[in-house]
Each structure stands twice: as C-alpha cells, then as structure tokens.
C-alpha cells in the first residue's frame, strides 16, 4: 500500500490490485479531482460487466445486502467479485447512472428541496422532542430514538410510512445497523479480508451477512406489500415510482429497473439515509454537552432569530451564522466517513504524474481534508470559528467535504443538510444538554467502524440499556 501525500482537493490511499511496481514515486503536491468514476469510458461492456464490481469483502459485507441474496453471484479469483446493484456500491456505468438520476428526480418529486419535506422534518423533530420530554429530565441515551426519528424521514419518502419510537420490530431493525457497523471491525471480517476463501467455509458467510439478511427481509416485506396494493395512477412513495419504471421497461434486458435493483436501491437509501445523519446528530449533542459555552451561544441565536415558540425553517439558516457554523463544525470535526466509499479505476489512469492501473481499489482520505493542518486553524479542536469571518458571518470552506466530491458525491447531501439544521435547531430550542453531575466527562474521540461512532456516554448508558431492553422486550 502506498499513501499519496498532499493533495489539494482530496487525498487518496491507493491499494494496488497486484503489485505496486507500476506506481511512480510522488515528488510534489498533486491535485486530484476525485478520480476514477469521473473517468470511466462508457460503451461496449456487456450489461453484466457494467454492474459487476470487484472489491474487498470488508466493504462488500457492509453494504451489499444478504449473502443468500448475492451468493449465486459470488465467485473467487484472487479476490471477490460481486454483482452489485443499487447506487452506493454500483459500478460506474449505465445502470448506476439511470438509478442515480431516477433516485434524485424522484426524491425531488417527493419533496426534496421543497417546503413540504422541511415541514415533515420539523414535525418529526417535534415528535422526538416530545419523546425526550417524556424522560422527565432524567439521564438517558437518545441513540435509538434519534436513529428512529431520522430514519422516519427517509422511510416516509421511500416507504410512505414512519415508525413509532416504541415499534419493537422497527427498533430491532435499527439495532441491526449497529451490528453491521460493529461487525465491520470484527475479527471474522478482518480474517476474511486477508483470506477471502474463508467465505466458502460453512457458517462464515451466514455469520458475516446475518444482520444484512435481516434488514433485507424487512425491506422485502415492505416491497411485497407495495406490490400487492400498487395502483399505477397513484405514486405514494419512492417504491411506487420505481415499480412504475419496472413496469415501463419490462422486456428490456438492459433496463436498470428490475426488482433486484429496487431492493438494493431501497436498501441504499434506507441505510445511507439513517445511520449517517443520526450519527452526526448524536455527535452534535455530545459536543454541546462537552462545550456548554458553544451550546449557550447557539441558544442565544435561536432565541433572537426564531424565539421559543415558532418552529425553525430552512429560511432561518441565513440569519443564523453561528448555528450554521456549529452544524458545519460538527460534521467537520466528527468526520464520520473518514475514508469515503471505496472506488475502483476502470482503466489505466494518469494523474499529475501518478500512474494508477486499471482495477485499482482507491479509498479517499476525506479525513485528511477535513483535518488538513494547512487549511484549518485548529484542525483537531471543535472550533465553529472555522466557518465564520471576522464579522461573525458564515463562510463556506472548500475543504469542507464530508459528502465527498465528484460524480459520486453523496446523493442525499441536500436532505442530510436540511435534517441536520432542523433537528439540531429544534433540539436546542427546547433543551439544554449536559453531562449528569455524577458522571465522568465523556470522550470526544471516536469509535472506529465503517462510519465512525460516538463513544459510549456513561451516564446515559445506564438509562439507555434499561430503555432499550424495555423497548425490545
Ligand atoms: C451527514 C449525513 C451524510 C454523510 C456525511 C454522507 C456522506 C456520504 C459519502 C462520503 C458518500 C460517498 C461518496 C463517494 O463515493 O465518493 C455518500 C454516498 C451516498 N450517500 Fe450519503 N451521506 C449522508 C447522508 C445521506 C442521506 C440522508 C442519504 C439518503 C438519501 C444518502 C445517500 C447516499 C447515496 C445513495 C450515496 C451513493 C452515491 C453514489 O454512489 O452515486 N446519504 N454519502
């Protein structure tokens, strides 16, 4: 493995497919405009090749769903080959393009970027605050409740439904995300990554894919229900819109709109739309507990601009530079997806003197940009002033790229930004968060999983375990 140093825009850890002999030694700073997917030639590959993607098991098992589902598509040849559909892990090509374009336009049709969706988010934030209030000021861990509320936003777009915070089935699904993240750093994953043939040992695959399998069973149930009640004249949600495309393109062997792709895309939106935003929000609350002065300043701004009664709207953001800066700093400092999503060069590539051969796995070191010492005044501190000018006005920073960049930039960025601002502002409008007096100060460090996790917060844990057990019983 060779680490390419000092990129101006985005840095990459490059993992050569075979030998590293073909790499030239970097000598100067290099500019990398997020490489591989932007440069893939379109064209004469077969449909099957277009959707196949070679990648190491450590990444496969996070994202691609149940082993049973993909098992027939697995083969072994100095690594694992999977046929992957959906958006997140789909190989750059026509199928990915069609599904990404469709997903973006359907999300817009269903309210993304419009007032109606912002109102849905504020409504959900209100439900969540009521659930917080029901704790009567006692310490508790808001982990699952926040996940549930955030997930409800993407669920209402994709499934046309939300789930109550005490819905036992849904809470079980939410705990599966954590299982997946924990397993991602587990010993079995590491071993399988080093010795991919292990996947063929009976029991290994089912253990690795157990949680995904359960998530996909849940999603299959929802899709089956939709199919049973589908009315072509009524577009209730994303699944209905996708079913319409499946119907329209029936008989076209090259169509991306097949049922497997429906399941994978719904899985992508559901998982990507739940864990990322809720983890960021939990980091936000953690930082507010750790830095009460910053929390006070946000609350003062909320009092001035919104007051205590009116619900926050997206229009408020322009008048709230400090809060906006804090929300950005939460994302910069928590840096929850430090290595982005892995990509692969689909042809030999030459970038400013680097030769990167075809089929090289690339991981983008987003962390090196979000914590770049030459850009940020205090890269390793929580410092909202990173996003404020001398007059206290909000400033955009080029090196703020938690959503990555290029053609594969996060599809849900707009939704995530809206959710972060509205949830966070609603929380601080209604509550002050602090560490229980008898508890030690939690760390502001990170737990490494595929995405980074908040550390356990002791005082909250006690309550949470009771609460979670109570909910799941
Ligand atoms: C704070 C919240 C979020 C963060 C930090 C985040 C970050 C990211 C990152 C780093 C990538 C990889 C980009 C790349 O491959 O270079 C990504 C991809 C993606 N995200 Fe997000 N994301 C967030 C929220 C969401 C939400 C709410 C959705 C749901 C709509 C979503 C859907 C996706 C999808 C579908 C992709 C794959 C895009 C593609 O490959 O074309 N994300 N996200």
What does this 3D model show about the protein?
With 473 residues, the protein is mainly alpha-helical. The protein has one domain: Cytochrome p450 (Orthogonal Bundle). It contains 17 helices and nine strands. The protein has a four-stranded antiparallel β-sheet, with no helix packed on it. Strands 3-5-4 form a three-stranded antiparallel β-sheet. The protein has a two-stranded antiparallel ribbon with strand order 7-8. The radius of gyration is 22 Å and the shape is globular. The protein starts with a strand and ends with a helix. The N terminus and C terminus are likely disordered. The protein binds protoporphyrin IX containing FE (HEM). The site of protoporphyrin IX containing FE has 25 residues, from α12 and α16. One of its GO terms (cellular component) is membrane. Belongs to the cytochrome P450 family. Keywords: Heme, Iron, Membrane, Metal-binding, Monooxygenase, Oxidoreductase. It is found in: Membrane.
């Amino acid at each position: 493995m060779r680490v390419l140093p000092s990129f101006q825009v985005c840095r990459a850890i490059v993992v050569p497919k075979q030998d590293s002999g073909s790499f030239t030694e970097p000598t100067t700073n290099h500019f990398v405009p997020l490489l591989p997917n932007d440069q893939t030639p379109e064209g004469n590959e077969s449909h099957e090749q277009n959707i196949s993607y070679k990648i190491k098991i450590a990444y496969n098992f996070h994202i691609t769903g149940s082993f049973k589902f993909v098992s027939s598509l697995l083969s072994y040849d100095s690594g694992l080959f999977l046929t992957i559909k959906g958006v997140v892990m789909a190989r750059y090509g026509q199928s990915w393009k069609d599904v990404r374009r469709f997903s973006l336009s359907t999300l817009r049709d269903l309210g993304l970027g419009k007032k109606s969706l912002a109102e849905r988010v504020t409504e959900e934030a209100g439900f969540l605050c009521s659930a917080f209030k029901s704790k009567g000021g006692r310490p508790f861990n808001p982990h699952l409740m926040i996940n549930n509320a955030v997930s409800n936003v993407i669920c209402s777009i994709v499934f046309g439904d939300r789930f109550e915070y005490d819905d036992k089935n849904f809470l079980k699904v939410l705990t599966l995300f954590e299982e997946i993240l924990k397993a991602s750093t587990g010993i079995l994953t590491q071993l399988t990554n080093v010795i991919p043939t292990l996947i063929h040992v009976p029991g290994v695959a089912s253990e690795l894919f157990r949680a995904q399998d359960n998530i996909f069973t849940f999603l299959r149930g929802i899709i089956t229900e939709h199919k049973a009640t589908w009315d072509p004249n009524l577009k209730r949600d994303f699944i209905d819109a996708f079913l319409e495309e499946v119907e329209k393109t029936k008989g076209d062997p090259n169509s991306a709109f097949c049922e497997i792709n429906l399941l994978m895309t719904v899985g992508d939106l559901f998982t990507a739309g739940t864990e990322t935003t809720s983890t960021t929000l939990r980091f936000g609350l953690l930082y507010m507990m750790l830095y009460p002065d910053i929390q006070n300043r946000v609350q003062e701004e909320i009092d001035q601009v919104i007051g205590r009664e009116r619900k926050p709207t997206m229009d408020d953001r322009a008048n709230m530079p400090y809060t906006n800066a804090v929300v950005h700093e939460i994302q910069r400092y928590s840096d929850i997806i430090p290595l982005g999503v892995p990509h692969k060069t689909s042809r030999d590539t030459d970038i400013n003197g680097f030769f990167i051969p075809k089929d090289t796995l690339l991981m983008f070191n987003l962390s090196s940009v979000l914590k770049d010492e030459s850009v940020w005044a205090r890269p390793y501190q929580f410092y909202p002033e990173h996003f404020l000018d001398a007059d206290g006005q909000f400033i955009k920073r080029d090196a703020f790229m938690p959503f990555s960049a290029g053609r594969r930039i996060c599809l849900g960025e707009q939704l995530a930004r809206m959710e972060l601002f509205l949830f966070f502002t609603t929380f601080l409008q209604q509550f002050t968060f602090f560490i229980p007096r008898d508890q030690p100060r939690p760390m502001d460090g990170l737990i490494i999983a595929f995405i980074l996790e908040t550390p356990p917060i002791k005082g909250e844990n006690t309550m949470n375990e009771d609460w979670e057990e109570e909910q799941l019983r």
